[in-house]
Amino acid sequence: MKRMLSLLLSALILVAVGAVYAVVQYKQPSQSAQIQTFEIAKGQGSRQIAADLEQKKMISNQWLFLAALKIKGAEATLKAGEYEIPARASIKDIQEQLIAGKVVQRKVTIAEGLTSFEVVHILEQTQGLDGDVTDIPAEGSLLPDTYHFILGESRQEKIDQMKQALAEIRQQYWDHRDADLPFSTWEEAVTLASIVEKETGIVSEQKTIAGVFVNRLKNGIPLQSDPTVIYALTKGRPKNEGQGPLGRRLLSKDLEIDSPYNTYKNAGLPPTPIANPGKAAILAVLNPEKNDFIYFVADGSGGHVFAKTLADHNRNVSEWRKMRHEKNNFDTNNKRKIEK
User: Are 58 and 95 in contact (CB under 8 A)?
Assistant: First the structure.
């Protein structure tokens, strides 16, 4: 009897020691000194996951990993996705991360003023997204922003998310627009916003420029916006070779193109947006600055200078041409010095 008790006690001691050892191993930091990436595929079982973790030396014992998972029960489901495993992470740390589904959040940034063709191109070049976008979305149907995604998310999902984000802007702000705007539909608002967006990337200027275009629309004056002519020439598919959307400077003869997008030859708005405007440009158009400006031209430093009369505008244009001429001469002289 004493022998049996002794054996039982020894067994209990061994179990206790084993349990303590297992707990220590479970919580002990790994030897890995670097952050590592680990991916769980959809439908992958816990046994394969544990084996992969051990094979990659992220955990020391796959059986300990599985035993702890079983003890935690049905709630301990390992979620598919891409994980960034911290350096020195223990089996416990990794297991909790996989159960919580703390996957890597990737992101793609869609800049304001890109055409839908350009947006799709960016998504096509974004690693981690899956699938194809079957059709180029309608111009002005996407909201530029930074969008987060997880590995394997579809490109079409991102397109749908951008459309939904724009729909939410419409729902939130359309009914709060100024009452005397020279357009009556959301589509027209986005069209004007796309022109404002292409005219300036300076948010603080957008309400002023929107006010100029509103004044022109109310008075039946053509918008005379260069970006609309560029869109008529490119159909929203710019060259993107570092030389601007045309691959060259816009020429006087370009302003004669026969197109409904040519706002030099046609008064009013073009038939569709010419790009995807950002939230700030849309809000600028819905609540533009009240001003008496009819004209604006670049000021040579990235912004614009505004005028109420043609005479003032002509003086501003003359000043801009003078600055551009001086800059070209400066650049040419510097280039010659470098070549020498």
Answer: no
Q: Please give the residue range of the domain that contains residue 161.
A: 106-166
Residue 153 phi/psi, 5-degree rounding, is -65, 145
Please indicate, yes or no, if residue 191 is contained in any of the structural domains. no
pLDDT computed for residue 242 by the predictor: 58
pLDDT digits (tens, 9 = 90+) for 33-80: 789 999 998 888 999 999 999 999 899 899 999 998 888 885 668 888
**In degrees, to the nearest 5, what angle opens at C-alpha 132 toward C-alphas 128 and 136?**
125
CATH number at residue 321: 3.30.160.60
Strand (E) or helix (H) holding 340: none
Q: What is the mean pLDDT of the chain?
A: 88
pLDDT at 335 over 60: no
Read off the amino acid at residue 165.
A
CB 215: neighbour CB atoms within 10 A?
Answer: 19
Give the Å distances, CA to CA, from 73 to 64, 67, 78, 99, 148: 15, 10, 12, 11, 32
Name the E strands within the chain. Answer: 36-40, 81-85, 106-109, 146-149, 295-298, 304-307
Residue 223: Cβ-neighbour burial (10 angstroms; 0-12, 13-18, 19+): buried
DSSP state of 302: S
The pTM assigned to this predicted structure is 0.82
- CATH code of the domain containing 90: 3.30.1490.480
